[in-house]
Structures are given as C-alpha cells and as structure tokens.
Amino acid sequence: MGGAELPETLARQCREIQDEFDDEVQRLRAQTTRFGDDYLERVLPLELKRLSHVSDAPPDIDLLVLICGTSPQPLLVSAGFVRPRHVLLIGSRTDTGREAVAKTDQHLRGAMRMLSLPEFRISERFIAPSEPVDAYHELARAIRDVATEMGIGLSRTLVDVTGGKKTMVAAAFLVCSELGLRSCYVDAEYDERARMPRPCTSDHRLLGDPIAAFKVRELQRVVQLCRARDYAQALSILDDVAEHVRGSDGASLLDPNMVMRDQRRLRALDAWSSRRFQEIPSHLNGADVPGAGAILDFGARWELALRESKKTWNLDACAMVSEGQLLLEFALHQVSRGRHLHGNDARREGFLHAFAGCDALVDGTLTLLIRKKRILRKDENKLANYAELKRLVQGNILAAIVRDGTAVTSDVIEVKDWPGIGADALFAVDQAARNGRNALLHGIGEPDAPFIDRYFAEGRPEALIESIARALGRTDFSAIPAVASITAAVDALQELEIEAL
User: Fold this and answer.
1) E strands in 246-399
2) Which residues are CB-contacts of 66 (< 8 A; sequence separation ≥ 6)?
3) Burial of 311 (C-beta count, 10 Å sphere; 0-12/13-18/19+)
4) Helix, strand, coil % over all residues of the chain, rounded to 5
5) How far is the CA of 336 from the CAs of 221, 357, 383, 455, 461, in angstroms?
6) For a tag on the chain, would you pick the N or C end, based on fewer CB atoms within 10 A?
C-alpha cells in the first residue's frame, strides 16, 4: 500500500492537526508544546493510521531494537507500526541516556494501554556513549543476549536506527552489517523549535542491510575501472557489492538480474584481457550483449580447439588450427587489446600487448610453414619443429624467410611456396620494435612515446597480420575492419547496466 493517497477524511484530519501544531509553534517561547505532552492521545493514532496508507507493510518481527535519544516520538511510531513481541531499548551509559530510555519506556507502556497495542515485553541495555568500538561490541552482545534469552532468531530482529547519539547510530549500522540484521528508520519533518517531529509527516522505511546503501555508491568505481580496462578489480568490487544486496531486503537497491549480467560481462572481459579465451563462452551468451559476437565467437572457437587438441595447448598448436586462422584471430585480439590500452594512456602496456600478438603470429607462421613442409632442410630431411629451425639458423635468417620468402643466405634450409610479406609489413616486429619491447619488459628504458604512437597510428600491427594472412592465401582478409569489430565488441561489453543507475 506504500505511496497510496489518503482517504479524504484522514487527509483533512492530518492537515488540521498540522495547522494547529504550526500555529502553536509560532506562539512558542520557552515552554514546551502541548503536542509533546498529548502525543500519545492526539498524534500517534493518526500517525499509525496514516502510515497504513503511505508506507509499505511492516515486516513480521519478534524483536524490535530501539536506539533511544531525546525525541521518543519516532520510536513510538516505529513500535506501534511494527507491533513486535519484544522491544529492546538501547541508551547511552550516561544520565541523559538513562533518562531517554526511561521516557521511551514510559511512553511505550502508555501507548500499549491507550491504543490497545500488543503488550511488548521491554528490556533495557546501556552502551558506551562516545567510544564507537566499545559501543559496537556492547550493542552486538546485547542484541545476541536478549535474542537468545527470548528464543528469538536474528532473522526476526529489526533495529531502528532513528534515535540516539551519532556514536550509537554508527554502532547500530555496523552491528546490523555484522549480524545480517534488517534495519529501519522513521523519517519525518523535524521542527527544531518544538523539538519533535511535525505531526502526520512520518514515513517508516526498511533498510535491509544498511551497508548495502553505501555499497551501491561503489558502483561508480566499478564503471570507472571498467572504462580503464581494469576488469579484474572492477569485478572484485561488483562481486562484493552483490554479496551485500543479493537475498536481503536491500536487494531493491539493485536489480539482482542486472548485477549478474554485469558480472558476466566483466568476467568475460577479464578472461579476454588475460588471454583465458576458453572461459568466455561460460560467461556470455548472445542474448547478454548482442554486439559482443566478435569476442564470444572467438572464445567458442578457442575453447573447441583447446578441447580437441591432442597435445599440450600452446601457440604452436594454435598455429595448426585451420591453417593459421585461429592464430591470426589471436593476434587481432591482442592488437585490439593493445589499442584499447594505448587509447587509455597506457602506452607501455598497449605496445607490449600488440607486439606480443604480432611476435606470436610470426613464430606461429614459421611453425605452420615447417609443418606444411614449406621450410625444409636442403638434405631433404624435414625439420622437426621450430626450435630445431632456430638452432640451425640465426634470427636474421628467420626474419628474411618471413619477409622475403627465401633463405638465400643459408646453405642449410630452403623455402617453398611462401611469397613473403615484405619489409614494410615486418615493421611491427623489426629490430627497432623488438629493442623497444625488450627495454620495456626488462625495465631498462622509458616508453618511446613518439615511436609507440606512430606504431599504432600507422596501423603497423594490422599491416603485419593482413600481410601474413594474404601470404597464407587469404586474399579477402582485411585486418583493420577485423580489429574494429573486436573493439566494438569490447565497447559493447563495457556498457554496464549499473552505469544507468
């Protein structure tokens, strides 16, 4: 019934008593308002009747914990609205705290008689007034002890955090989080001169896990980390938030289905960025993010190839899948990741990712040529593997094979049916790029920003991938649109639903 309009008669009664209250406050000097003295008889019945129309139904509670302060009226509203079997009054261990508990106790007993409320069994406990840690431990112990004594489960306990000193309220929030207790508060228009809430303005609100409301604020951090491509950290924070809102009354703060969809997206992005491509299909499906097909399809192909591999899965084995097609895709994804990082001012990481993808593609291509008997020993005995080829010849001869399609300087090996990719295409992994990679990897130099910017601006990684694809016979292959498609898929996955909150 929360949010419903009041019946006209009740609405008129509320307006009349508010007008009367406002008039009296205007005339108030030092004396207290009679509304404070007559609250039980004149205001509380209307407050409770009004709440039945404007607030959601109260939970079925056995133990209500009230943090007592100088204004008992909201606590009376809470107790009268919730109607528990037992009430635990918490005050500070001071004269003021004891007076607040005594006043609330007196009013509660009066409310039971006057309004025919269920007879609450009332207990009292007092906690540290100004030491938050002590107050926290003492409050937790008091709630546990009373709940145990009364045979009441913590799941049927509600803590009202409306009143009391700031130290006590802070302790109550922490205890609710530790014990998994539901909490509530009574909101109202508070009149400073009358030192009490204005009549018929109360609203009873359930908080569930009170920490959930603060955890939701961390969603902005999740979005920021996702945009910065720190998917693992973003996922860690979102998982923590989900633990606080899922399955509690605070779940209304977040749609659990929305959170789970964003968790799947971040897990897929984390798997993609960490080269655990085989995990992507377990996190995503086409319905999650329609625009993420370039990543999902590649993950499915990678998973299938890994499953069907009869030997240890590595880039050499990857090179043999569909005659290098899967390895080409691997390089495309590495370059896309590198471009994402470079565009986010992470030049070092972006360059290293792109270079690693291109370097793996060159090595894998040599493995493929060996397996396809396009690189042979001149004595007609085929090479066993890439490692043997490296033992036989030096790195510059290997580069010449990829670049020129020949090994004219070697009297050991010969190349057949490989046209080479040309010197320009090899720029992505040539000696200058390799020197830059080594300096960055080993921490012996700073990123050469102009070189790295030119590396990406001129599309050198894409030129290498496209040239190798064409040399392998794929004349319709175009690397730049392929990388753009992967980038678009990543962008689609990064559009988290929680960002709209």
Assistant:
1) 375-377
2) 75, 78, 79, 87, 88, 89, 90, 104, 160, 163
3) exposed
4) 65, 10, 30
5) 24, 10, 34, 13, 10
6) N
CB 69 within 8 A of CB 165: yes
Give the amino acid at 100: A
With residue 124 as reference, give the H or E element that holds it.
strand 121-127
Put residue 4 in one of left, alpha, beta given phi > 0 → left and psi -120 to 50 → alpha: beta
Helix axes 256-273, 231-245, angle to 10 degrees: 160
* H-run or E-run covering 271: helix 256-273
322, two tokens: 């569909």
pLDDT in tens, 229-262: 899 999 998 988 777 654 444 444 567 888 889 9
What three-state secondary structure class fits 405? Answer: coil
For CA atoms 324, 328, 334, 337, give the dihedral sign.
negative
**Distance between CA atoms of 250 and 247, rounded to whole angstroms?**
8
Token output for 427: 């720029």
Work out the mean pLDDT of the chain and round it to a whole number.
86
- Copy the structure tokens of residue 259: 């959170």
Where does residue 483 rank: exposed (0-12), middle (13-18), buried (19+ CB within 10 A)?
buried
DSSP assignment string, 419-448:
----TTGGGGGSHHHHHHHHHHHTT-S---
Instruction: List, as own/partner pairs, every contact residues 323-328 make where C-beta atoms lie below 8 angstroms and the sequence separation is at least 24, other chains included.
Output: 323/368, 323/372, 323/472, 324/364, 324/365, 324/368, 324/468, 324/469, 324/472, 325/474, 326/301, 326/302, 327/360, 327/361, 327/364, 327/365, 327/368, 328/361, 328/465, 328/468, 328/469, 328/474, 328/477
For residue 449, the surrounding DSSP H or E stretch is: helix 449-457
Tens digits of per-residue pLDDT, 455-475? 999 999 999 999 999 999 988
Burial class (CB within 10 angstroms; exposed 0-12, middle 13-18, buried 19+) of 297: middle
Confidence of residue 366 (pLDDT cuts 50, 70, 90): very high
The angle that helices 479-494 and 460-471 make with each other, rounded to 10 degrees, is 120
Task: Quote the pTM value.
Answer: 0.62
- Using N-to-C axis directions, what is the helix angle for 325-343 and 460-471, rounded to 10°? 170
Give 462-478 as a DSSP string.
Answer: HHHHHHHHHHTT-TT--
Sign for the CA dihedral angle at 87, 88, 91, 93 comes to positive
Entry field: residues in the chain: 501
